[in-house]
Amino acid sequence: MATTTHSQTADWVGQSIRRKEDARLVCGRGKFVDDIKLLGMLHLAFVRSPYAHATVSGVDASEAEALPGVVCTLTGQEISKLVDPFFEIGPAPSNRILDYPMAVDRVRYQGEPVAAVIAETPAIAEDAAELVRVDYQPLEAVIDGEIAATDRAILHPAMGTNVVWRGVYEYGDVGKAFAEAAHVIHIDHLHMHRFSSTPLENNAVIAQWDEGDQRLYFWSNNSFPTIGIQLLAPALHLRMDQVRVQTHDIGGSFGIKITNYPQMAVCALASRKANGAPIKWSETRSEHMTASAHGNERTFRDTRVALDRDGVLLAVESRHIDDCGGYPRYEPLGCVIWSQVTPATYRLKNLRIDFTQVVTNKCPVGPNRGYSRLQHLWFLERVLDICAHALNIPPDEMRLRNYIRPEEFPYTTPNGCIYDSGNYPGMLKLAKELIGWERWQAEREKARAEGRWLGVGIGTTLDSGTNNFGQSQIVNPQAPFSGNSQAASAKLDIYGEVIVAVGSVPQGQGHETVVSQVVADILNIRPEMVNVRVGFDTERNVHTGHSGTYASQFAVSGLSAVNGAAQSLKAEMKKLAAFALQADEEELEFGTGTQGPEVRVRGSGKAIPYIGLANLANVNTAVVPEELRSITLNCRYTWRAPFHVPDVQKKYGNLTLTYSAQLHIAVIEIDRDTYIPRILDYAAVDDCGTVINPMIVEGQVHGATAHGIGAALMENCVYDENGNMLASTFSDYTPITAVNIPRVKYGNIQTPSPHSYSGAKGMGEGGGAPLHAISAALQDALWREGIVIDDSHNSASTLYELIQRKRGGGLRENVRIERGGP
Amino acid sequence: MPEIPRVRVSAKINGRQCSREVEPRTLLVQLLREELNLTGTHIGCDTSYCGACTVLLNGRAVKSCTMFAFQADGAEVLTVEGLARDGALAPVQQAFSDCHAFQCGYCTPGLLMSTIELLREHPNPTESAIRKGIAGNTCRCTGYQNIFRAIEAAARSAAARDQAADSRPDRS
Questions:
Q1: Predicted local distance difference test score (pLDDT) of residue A3
Q2: The complex's ipTM?
Q3: Which chain A residues are closer than 8 Å to B38 by Cβ?
Q4: Got the DSSP string for A612-666?
Q5: B37 to chain A: closest CA residue
Q6: What are phi and psi for residue B135, nearest 5 degrees?
Q7: CB contact (8 A) between residue B138 and residue A254
Q8: Which string of DSSP letters, residue by residue, matches A2-58?
Q9: Does the beta-carbon distance from B147 to A729 stay under 8 Å?
Q10: Is the pLDDT of residue A1 over 50?
């Protein structure tokens, strides 16, 4: 379709073009960190704590150091003298936490590193790690968030409490709403379990300290390196410009790899100690499961819900306890990030959420896919769903009565967030069509008559993208972050090739492809004529302090920056071409001629190829008149999101730019003999505004769906009472496989965002819709048995326990109708 | 610690005879990645759950992290690097790309090898055969939906090729 008659209109955006990334990846020619070998490279293995909570009184590495092939060792004590603790994002007293890259005198979760061994081969490093003697004095392990909040055993003496952050979010008039409510329902407890999206590639890093240049080089799979080096450089007493981070192909991150900077720091110190040898650390899966990062675990207590006679939500009040594991790291940002979606998809005006975050003796959390919003969305979905059952209102009807209506967008939430666009009833309609709602309702009635447990559940959710960093000031008024930005560059190289770089850190989302689509439309050329740099590099890619790949934003922040850079380049090319062709700019058009991409005078046959323009700007500069000599054909553009700093006192402001939505319907039957929940049918409808590459969007929806289904039915980072992580291998954690996943009936609607240049919304995290839909389907199957689905994780064994416990009990004790009723 | 005696492994890897001396504990995946620079075969777990390390050993799919290098002595090994011929993708590679059956691409080499074995045993696989055939390969990006489609497409294109071959006049 790209011929000389190719029109000026956008053609490539909106098409499912084959990905550029595929060519190398499908041939095994991708370059992941562990694939990189450097001359003289050494290997690092960690010595890790078997205890969840213990003091460390001594580390003896002499035997390890004596092993042939071992170059040196590092202990926590030793590095505490070489580095500063990482800065804490939270306010006092949590900013008194001393977070060193390895434990110094106390371990706070099983698997926390206490020492490292550096050797000539990975095998020798592992052998030697076993020879390091560590003296531990075990302490009481604090595993439960609510117990942690009582400060019975304190993890960080410098902080003096386990409470990292506490605040009350109150909007509207909660008291009045409860006074006027027709129904008041009390839900004692709900619990969102710990899970992780566990990227298939583990964490890995190579660090090299160059003593001569006083520079530090990282080859890393960190997915937010610009924040990584903001943490690393001061801790290592370096200027940021002394630290270079490169990424290439990354085997998935889902946010989990944002928090691998402590291991990067240890490798940097190891390289320094090993006279500048490159040091590789390649995490094992067991290390990843016990000691990298998990998603946030959250408990919801004493929830009270006020509803009018029709089941419309009037008010919700609740107490939330978030468990962030041994160290806050990226936290306490999760204590505010949930409030991007305060009322979920509903017209809920009055809320009071008392939010507390605590440390426990578990793996630190990281911003896992759907970070902090999905916990809150699951909570409100359970609330609405339980209330529907308690009031005997059909679940679809309950949602329709509560959804924000299509005509209400842009919709301002009680806390000042602006939902840009959406059509939740339209999504419900489409999802019902996809799944065959009426047929399954009939099937459900038939199953019930036969005594089978079959349920149909709806989950509606939001994927808020392009966050306003100003929300960090709600958790810490001293936090120096606000807004959001991204940078991109577009240039014509000397021989006329179009070269684009952007500050994102792709991990499989196809950024090279979609950037090419966007630029191809702007310049009216084919995507393969656009060269997008692979991976990220702090020295090669333009970037800002917000650059990275996280928080569902590439389609907005990344592509807005690319659009800006390409438009600037186009404007410069036009000026130069007008001079070269002796024409007015208005007469010029962009296209592809027999010599390749060109700028030409409309209807004249006069044209200049890109190489001609590049020649004038780069190597044949004396022929260019003075007034055009500022043209470089190398354009950088920084996009800044139109945000303001929120009102910190009122906890009010726009926290996110776009709101993608997902609506899933699950049909599940629980086997009455084995208690195995089986998904019989599944539909997923997505709305991420204008779609740039439908194939990639659908792929992202599939992936988020699988993560959610896996988390809902299989995957659980479960601990015993002593803080032993019981799912420390994939064989225990059981990530969802091809035999467990249902075929997903996919649908898409598009409500273009008025807040992005193209109408696209950030997407990919998915908002945990499967967790909501599956909990609702199980609830639908079991409500009449007196069961309340109060946990986000439901496997055959937990369902068995729930049902057996109920059989001993009698009352539905978790849910109480205080007023009204069906 | 005494010097660990080494063992010799000679194998035909992607059609080329290779010989290396390795520690007895060296895993096949380590031989491929570390000694032969065939880094397309990946490591994703420690317990042979994820299948990122799957290669073909004498034509059968094996998890190269779960066998010693010396066990491959005398064998023929095919890795992802050996699939494309003269710059042309193998049909399974083409189908995986056509169907967007991978995102980060980390699991893909292992899945391709399992798919080759699956399609050899089940040229027209049922959905159940497809699911079982790749049950030992974990993908965290795609939710498997497009992998199912790719395997179905690869089977169809193989069937179409066979049909074309059958209808050739010189075929007796």
A1: 32
A2: 0.96
A3: 28
A4: HHHHHHHT-GGGS-GGGTT--SEEEEEEE------BTTTTBS--EEEEEEEEEEE
A5: A35
A6: -60, -25
A7: no
A8: -STT--SS--STT--PPPTTHHHHTTT----GGG---TT-EEEEEEE-SSSSEEEEE
A9: no
A10: no
Cα A80 to Cα A59: distance, rounded to the nearest angstrom: 14
CA angle B73, B76, B78 (to 5 degrees): 125
pLDDT in tens, A546-572: 999 999 999 999 999 999 999 999 999
Enter the tokens of residue A467: 């966050």
Please tell me the distance from the alpha carbon of residue A522 to that of residue A514, in angstroms, as a whole number. Answer: 13
Bridge partners of A470, per DSSP, are: none
Nearest CB among B44, B96, B146 relative to A26 is that of: B96
How many residues in total does chain A contain?
822
Asked if B132's CB is within 8 angstroms of A254's CB, the reply is no
Q: If you search the block for the tokens 């002394």, which residue do you land on?
A: A242
Distance between CA atoms of A260 and A225, rounded to whole angstroms? 10
* Closest residue on chain B to A198 (Cα): B140
Which of B1, B50, B52 has its CB closest to that of A68? Answer: B1
Q: Which helix (H) or strand (E) holds A564?
A: helix A559-581
What is the C-alpha separation between A137 and A55, in angstroms, rounded? Answer: 5
Single-letter amino acid, residue A400: L
- Check residue B139 and give its pLDDT: 98
- The pTM is what? 0.96
Q: What percent of chain A has pLDDT over 90?
A: 97
Q: Do A738 and B142 touch (CB under 8 A)?
A: no
Exposed (0-12), middle (13-18) or buried (19+): which is A105, by Cβ within 10 Å? middle
- A675, A797 Cβ separation under 8 angstroms: yes
Question: With 90 as the cut, is the pLDDT of residue A805 above it?
Answer: no
Return the pLDDT at A810.
54
Contact B105 A254 (CB under 8 A): no
Rounded CA separation A557/A637 (Å): 11
Residues of chain B with pLDDT under 70: 1-2, 165-172
Over residues A667-689, the mean pLDDT reads: 98
What's the rounded Cα separation, in Å, for the pair B39 and B54?
Answer: 12
Alpha carbon of residue A429 to chain centroid? 28
Q: In this predicted structure, what is the pLDDT of residue A644?
A: 96
A571 to each of A65, A576, A621, how far by Cα in Å? 62, 9, 18
